[in-house]
TrEMBL record:
RNA-binding as UniProt keyword: yes
General function of this protein: Binds together with bS18 to 16S ribosomal RNA.
Keyword line: Ribonucleoprotein, Ribosomal protein, RNA-binding, rRNA-binding
Protein family according to the UniProt entry: Belongs to the bacterial ribosomal protein bS6 family.
Protein's recorded name: Small ribosomal subunit protein bS6
Length: 122
């Protein structure tokens, strides 16, 4: 079975404490691992303001997971998102070779160093 690269971002309700948030993220990690996914990278973006209110909430905990998996894993992951009342929104996208290369460069810090160089010039 062919493995594809994916990236998923989900927003958790701001009513959770740190422990509850970590437990929820761990549950999604387990769903991925149980279905044969290989987690490449993960980022916790923390509590951020939403662009518009969702379920009368204006903030949420953002989390990103980049993974490589068979195509059927996305259905299982998104079903788990839908069943969990702590998830406000989610989006899973398949990455093409250009997005994979971009993410790898971003993880290696190439874009941060370029921004610093531009600040020095300005």
């Amino acid at each position: 079975m062919e493995l594809r690269n994916y990236e998923t971002v989900f927003i958790l309700t701001p009513l959770l404490n740190e422990v509850q948030m970590q437990e929820t993220v761990e549950k999604f990690r387990e769903v991925l691992k149980e279905n044969g996914a290989d987690i490449i990278h993960e980022e916790n973006w923390g509590l951020r303001k939403l662009a518009y209110p969702i379920q009368k909430k204006s903030t949420g905990f953002y989390h990103l997971i980049e993974f490589k998996a068979p195509t059927n894993v996305v259905d299982a992951l998104e079903l788990t998102y839908r069943r969990d009342e702590k998830v406000v929104r989610f989006l899973t996208t398949a990455l093409d070779k250009h997005a994979v290369a971009y993410n790898e460069r971003r993880r290696n810090g190439e874009f941060k160093s370029q921004a610093k160089k531009e600040e020095v010039k300005g």
